[in-house]
Amino acid sequence: MLLHPDRERSLMRHWILPLALALPVLAAQPAAAQQPAAPAPAGPPHAWVMGVWTGGLFPAGETETAACYANATVIILRDVVLRAAVLDVAYRQRLIETIGPTPDGGLQLRLVPAAPPGGPFGGRMPPDIGFGCEGGPDVLRIERRGPNEIVFPDCREFLSPLKRCGAAGR
User: Fold this and answer.
1) CA distance 134 to 151
2) The model scores a pTM over 0.90
3) pLDDT score, position 89
4) More confident residue, 148 or 44
5) Which of 148, 152, 127, 126 is nearest to 139 (CA)?
6) Mean pLDDT of the region 139-165
7) 163 membership: H or E segment, kind and range
């Protein structure tokens, strides 16, 4: 079906005007899509130390295999620190009360004071409830030695550096 030339021009004008107005809007959309995304929300101040660590009580061994996770000495989570007990199967769990940076770029974790357990054997605390650090059982200082290595300075129970498990590709 053929249209009259005047009718054909009218239809073309009818579509050209909206198309001409829409082109700048369509052209601007890819530029807006290329804008950098908003920065990711900052994590907790100790995000760099979160993970599973081996060593400390003894020199760190292999960190790339599943055996590292089986021999974990310290596990640091968002609000909990777990440490291996030398003479017990269970990990000692300590809640984090506050976290602050140290002048040397490390961290100081203040742990919630541990309450003595009740029971028929008295209210004595296990000797390894803390980390053996100078500040007492409720303070833990952490220094970074490398991207996957930390130390607990002045902690008599953790004389060796700790290495992050699974750190082969990092």
Assistant:
1) 14
2) no
3) 80
4) 148
5) 152
6) 93
7) strand 162-164
Pairing of the two strands 162-164 and 139-146: unpaired
Can you tell me the distance from the alpha carbon of 74 to that of 54, in angstroms, rounded to the nearest whole number? Answer: 7
Q: What is the C-alpha to C-alpha distance for residues 86 and 117, in angstroms, rounded to an integer?
A: 19
CB 82 within 8 A of CB 73: no
Q: Where residue 32 falls among pLDDT bands split at 50, 70, 90?
A: very low
Buried b / exposed e along 135-155 (16+ C-beta atoms within 10 A): eebbbbbbeeeeebbbbbeeb
Among 72, 77, 75, which residue's Cα sits nearest to residue 55?
Answer: 72
Strands (E), 50-134: 51-55, 74-76, 80-84, 91-101, 107-111
Q: What distances in angstroms separate CA 35 from CA 23, 30, 32, one per listed residue?
A: 20, 9, 5
Residue 168 confidence (pLDDT): 63
CA distance 143 to 109: 11
- Of 121, 153, 149, nearest in space to 139 by CA: 153
User: Measured at the alpha carbon of residue 37, what is the angle toward residues 36 and 40, in degrees to the nearest 5?
Assistant: 130
Domain residue ranges of the chain, discontinuous segments joined by +: 47-114+128-164
**Dihedral sign (CA 162, 166, 169, 170):** negative
